[in-house]
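Support request, please re-run this one:
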Amino acid sequence: MDVRRVVEIWNPVGKCSGTGYLVADGLVLTALHNVLGCGALEVRWLGRDAEWLTAEVLWPQPSPPDLEREPQADGALIRITDPDWQPPSGVEPVRWGRIDGTVVRDEQRLTCVAVGFPRSEVRDGVRDTKEIRGHIETLTGLKSGGLITAYVDQVAVPSKPDEKSRWAGASGAALFARGRLIGVVTTDRQRDYAGDQLTAVSVESLAARPGFSITVKAGGTDLVPEDVTAADPERPRTSAYDVEVPRGVNNLPELPSPIFVGRAEVMAELERALAGESQTITQTLHGLGGVGKTTLALHYAHDHAGAYRLVWWMRSDTPERIEAGFASLTVRLRGGAADGLTPAQAAEWAIGWLQTHPGWLLVFDNAEKPEDVHTWTGQLRSSGRYLITSRYKRGWVCDPIPLPVLDEEASLALLSRLVGGGNDDEDEARALADDLGHLPLALEQAGAFIAQTEVPIAAYRAMLRQYPGRATDAAPGGSAPGRTMAGIWRITLDTLQERDPRSVDILRIAAWYAPTGIPRDLFAPLAEDPVDLAQLLGLLADYNMITLDRAGIGIHRLVQTVARTPSEDDPHRDQAGIKAARERATGLLLGELPEDPRVNVAGWPTWRTLLPHVEAVLDAGDPGEDTAAIALILNLIGRFLQGQGQLRQATDYYSRSLAAATRVFGEDHPDTLGLRNNLAYAYRSAGDLGRAIPLYERTLDDFVRVLGEDHPNTLLSRNNLAGAYASVGDLGRAIPLYERTLDDRVRVLGEDHPYTLGSRNNLAHAYGSAGDLGRAIPLYERTLDDFVRVLGEDHPYTLGSRNNLAGAYRSAGDLGRAIPLFVSTLDDHVRVLGEDHPDTLLSRNNLAGAYRAVGDLGQAIPLYEQALADCLRVLGEDHPTTRLARENLAVAREQGP
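Re-run finished. Output below.
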C-alpha cells in the first residue's frame, strides 16, 4: 500500500465522492457505484494544492451490471485523461492478492488495512486520509460470490463529524493484506453507523469478470494474484511489507546536556499535542537558534521512546540530509540487504515501510524550510507522529509551539548546576544571565567554560565585555565545535542572505540599537514601500531573529553582540560590513531625530522613543572613533536632555561631541565653535559659572575671528556670554552686552526674529535684576505681545516670557496681576510641556513664591512641597531648580506659625 496512490473521486452527475487507488499509470481502481451514471468525472491527489484532473470510466463498458443482483461486481477502472497528469515517481508496482479458506486455515485472523475517507477531514489546510485497520476472520471473512467482510479494529474518526456518515467517501478504497491488494471496499453508508464491519469486493472476483484483467494489462501491469500467506522463511525479508522491528527501536543522539530546567510547561504542552487521537499528528517547535529546541525534542524522544514502534531522528536543514535520514532508516531495517541501493532508492524503501507500519515518531531536527519536510510527510499521512524543530515559524501544518528564553530563576538554576559550588556569587550569576539574555545555549557555553577554567563569574563577564568575539565563538572542551552561538546563527544568516540580503542588512543595523522597541519606520529607507518593509521584517521574525509587536522590533542582545563582533571566518561579520552597518544605523537615526529638540514639543514623543537607541549607538562605539554624524547626534541629544533638565548627561554628551568635532573638523570650524558654546551653556545651566564664563569668552573671540562680528552665531555667543555675566551678578558687563546684542540682532535678523525677541526678553530680565523695573516691565510686556504674535500662545518661548512678566509684576509688588498670570502660565506649562518638564516645575515654584509674597502660606507651602518632591524625582538633588525649591520651602516654613 502506498498513500501516494490514493485519490479522491468526484462524480458530478451523482454529486458524490469516493476513494480510488492508482494500480497502473493513469489507471485507477474504485467502486462502481461511485461512478455510475457519468461518462466524465474528476480525480485529485492528496495535498494542499492538488488540482482536479479529468478522467473517464474505462471498465465496465458498455453497460454496467445490476449491483443489487450482483454486489460482487461493484468495481470499476478509471482512466485519467487530463493532459496535466503526472504519475508519482519511485512507487513500487502493485502486488495483487487472493485469499481462501485453505490458504489461511491455520490462522485465526488475517490483518488488513485500507486507506480512504478523502472527504472526511481537512486539517490545517490539507485534506487528510483515514486509515482503516482491522482483520478478516478465517472462517467467515470470505463469503460466497467473492465478497470480503472486514472487521474494523481501528480507524481515525473525524475530529468534527458533520451530518454525513463518518464512512462517507470510504467506498473505492483499496483493501490490502500482507502488502497485497485483495479487494475494493464497497461500503458507503449514508448515515453514521457504529458497526465495525465493512464489505469489499475481492480482486479475485473482479478478475473473473470479462475485460477486467485485459484492461489492467493494457494499463501496463499484469494482474497475477498471489496467495496471501505467511512469508516464505527461505526468502530474505527485504520487502517493505515484511520487515518487523521490536518496539522502542531508535537512533536518538545523546542529550547535549543532562541538565534540563525551566521547560516543564512547554514539555507538557508538547506531550498533550502528540497524545491526540488522530493517527497522524505533526507538531513543530520554533524559536531562536540556541533557545533549546533540539534539547527539548531530544528529552521528549528519549522519555517516550518506549511508546512508539520506532523513533527516528533526522537532521533536516537541507533536503539532502532529510533524504539521508530516511536512507539510514533503510540500512537499520534491512542491514546488508540495503547494499547497492542509491540514497534515493533507500529513502523510498523507508517511506514504503513507514506507510505499512504505523505507530512511529519521526523527528525532523532544525528544518529550514517547511516544504522540505512536507515533501516527505505528505506521503506518510495517517501513519504516525512528526516532531519538527525549526528556527522558522511559518508554513507548518500545525500551530507551532514557540520556545522562549528561560526565565530568570531557570537561568540561575542552569548556571548553578553547570558551574558547581565554587562560584556562588548570586548577584554576578544574575548579571551574567541577563548579559546572555537567558538563552540556554549561551548559558551552557558560559557555564561549561567557567567550570572548565575555574574562573569567577565576574571574570567571565569581563571577558565577554572585552573579548565578545572569542567568548561567543569558542566552544568549551568536550563540546561540538560548531555548537556555539556564533556558529548556529551563521546558518540562519546564510539562509536569510539567500532569500533576501536586505533582511541581513536590517539585522546588522538593528544590532546597534537598544534590544527592544526599535521603531519599524527606522528601516523604511531600506525597503521599496511599506509592504516590502513588512515582508522583510516578517521574514526575520519568521526565522526568530527578531520579534515583532506593536511597540516595534525586538532583537536578542546576544544576537546584537555577535553581529557587532568582527570574525574573519564569518562573511556576515567582516570588519568593513560591521563598520558600514554602524554608519547606516547612525544615519537612519539621524534622519529621524526631530530638529530643535529643546523647544520642538511635537518632536518630544519621537525623542523619547528613539532615545534608548541613540544611547545604544553611542555606548557601543569608541569615543575616539566618533564620526561627524556621531558628533551631530551627540549635540542633538545633549540639547534634548538639557531641555528636559538632565544636565549631567547633557554635559557629558556635549563634551564628547566637542572632542569629536575638534578631531574631525578642527578647532576653528564653525560646528566646533557652536559645540563649545553649547557646552558652556550646559555649565551655566548647572550653575558651574567658573567653567562657563571663560569658555564663553574664548568662544566669542573665536567666532568674531572666524565668522565676523555680525554672524548670527557670533551674536548668539555674545548673548550667551551676557547671560553668564548676569547669572554671576556682574550686571555692569551683562547689560551693555545685552543692549549691543539686541541692536545687532535687530539690524541683522530683524525685529521679529525669535532670537531678537529672546534678546529683548534677556535685556528686560537684566533690567529687573538691577532693580530697574520701570524699564523691565514695559520691555517684558512688548516682548510677550511679540512672542504671541510671532510664535503663538503655546510656544515654550512664549510661556517663558509670560512667566518672566509675572515675576516682574511680583517684584514690583503688583501681586494682583502677578498671581493670575502665574496661575494661567502654570496651567499652560502643564498642558503644553507636561507635569515633569523643568519649566513646569519652575513655574510651580514661582506661583508658590507669589502666594508666599502675599502671605498665603496655606497655598504656598503645599505648592513648594510638591515642587520640591517633583524636582527631586525628575531633576535630582543637585539641579539648580531643586536647590531653589528646597531653599524657598525652608523660608516659607520659617515664616509659618
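The longest strand covers residues 109-123. The radius of gyration is 41 Å.
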